[in-house]
């Protein structure tokens, strides 16, 4: 009889933080050297519970080996019947288990060296992250993981009107990252990020997201309004302070085409950590 080890990971929401707890049961299993996606061969079972559905539309369960290579991955959308549950069959060894929750228009790219990349085409959204070393063997596994927000959100409150003829607004920004470390969750690439706002969304909050890097805490954003392919206005906003799990609210004239002096102050927000109010 082969011996296998089953790990059960449960996800729930606690305020604006996703918290993970896990209990594991030792089953009859063996020394399987090849990984398999069949449920009957699974030795790591991941499940979710709570209000995950309210915070994200996609879940990615990613397993790396100790060399930083992806060995298995489960991608799910909120419409999937098994949303929130994933099973892996892993040979005995050491792994890095990474879980992402987000609402991008597609799944991120999983690269070597423990890097995960979101793209301009798929968009940047509120994103939660957990990462844990996992040792698969004969002993029972006990996990206790916290899944935390890894993005900064920049909210724009224009003090002037969007040009009447505008049908879209483009945000081009540098200083953050679209690529994160699968170990720490920090941004690891100096990305040039782009986000678009269509006319149908002009009445919604104007917000963009980035993954902060450890070596930088400011963002430069160029806000341009368009009619078709014609630029109607363009505004550069410099030195916007950003922080992981923090909202920066930018207030000022966005569509006058001028570059103005930046001022900001910090206030408290109950939903995110220490939001920043930023005038320009």
3D architecture notes:
The chain has 280 residues and is an all-beta fold. It is 1% helix and 52% strand. It has one helix at 52-55, and strands spanning 3-14, 17-29, 44-47, 58-65, 70-77, 85-88, 93-102, 109-111, 115-117, 128-136, 144-149, 152-158, 168-174, 179-181, 192-198, 206-210, 218-227, 230-241, 247-252, 263-266, 276-279. The strands form 4 sheets. It has a 9-stranded mixed sheet with strand order 5-4-7-10-11-2-1-3-6, with no helix packed on it. It has a 5-stranded mixed sheet with strand order 16-12-19-21-20, with no helix packed on it. A 4-stranded antiparallel sheet has the order 15-13-17-18, with no helix packed on it.
List the helices and strands and how they pair.
Elements: E1 3-14, E2 17-29, E3 44-47, H1 52-55, E4 58-65, E5 70-77, E6 85-88, E7 93-102, E8 109-111, E9 115-117, E10 128-136, E11 144-149, E12 152-158, E13 168-174, E14 179-181, E15 192-198, E16 206-210, E17 218-227, E18 230-241, E19 247-252, E20 263-266, E21 276-279
Parallel strand pairs: 1-3, 12-19, 19-21
Antiparallel strand pairs: 1-2, 2-11, 3-6, 4-5, 4-7, 7-10, 8-9, 9-14, 10-11, 12-16, 13-15, 13-17, 17-18, 20-21
Oligomer: single chain
How much helix is in the residues?
A: under 10%
Major β-sheet profile: 9 strands, mixed
Structural class: mainly beta
Q: What sequence of helices (H) and strands (E) makes up the elements?
A: EEEHEEEEEEEEEEEEEEEEEE
Q: Average the pLDDT over all residues and give the rounded result.
A: 77
The amount of beta strand, in percent, is over 45%
Shape: elongated
Sequence of strands across the biggest β-sheet? 5-4-7-10-11-2-1-3-6
Helix count equals 1
Return Rg in Å: 21 Å
N-end to C-end Cα span: 69 Å
């Amino acid at each position: 009889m082969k011996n296998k080890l089953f790990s059960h990971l449960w996800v729930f929401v606690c305020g604006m933080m996703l918290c993970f707890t896990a209990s594991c049961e030792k089953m009859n299993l063996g020394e399987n050297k090849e990984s398999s996606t069949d449920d009957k061969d699974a030795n790591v079972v991941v499940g979710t519970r709570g209000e995950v559905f309210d915070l994200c539309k996609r879940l990615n369960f990613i397993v790396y080996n100790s060399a930083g290579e992806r060995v298995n991955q489960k991608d799910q959308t909120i419409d999937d019947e098994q949303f929130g549950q994933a099973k892996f069959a892993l040979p005995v060894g050491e792994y890095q288990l990474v879980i992402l929750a987000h609402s991008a228009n597609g799944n991120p790219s999983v690269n070597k060296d423990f890097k995960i990349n979101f793209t301009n085409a798929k968009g940047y959204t509120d994103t939660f992250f957990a990462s844990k070393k996992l040792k698969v063997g004969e002993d029972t596994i006990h996990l206790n993981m916290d899944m935390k927000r890894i993005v900064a959100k920049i909210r724009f409150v224009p003090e002037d009107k969007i040009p009447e003829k505008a049908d879209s607004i483009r945000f081009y920004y540098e200083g953050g990252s679209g690529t994160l470390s699968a170990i720490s969750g920090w941004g690891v690439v100096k990305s040039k990020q782009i986000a678009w706002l269509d006319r149908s969304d002009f009445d919604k909050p104007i917000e963009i997201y980035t993954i902060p890097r450890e070596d930088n805490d400011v963002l430069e954003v160029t806000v341009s309004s368009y009619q078709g392919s014609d630029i109607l206005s363009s505004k550069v906003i410099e030195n916007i302070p950003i922080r992981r799990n923090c909202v920066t609210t930018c207030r000022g004239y966005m569509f006058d085409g001028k570059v103005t002096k930046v001022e900001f102050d910090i206030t408290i927000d109950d939903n995110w950590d220490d939001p920043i109010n930023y005038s320009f």
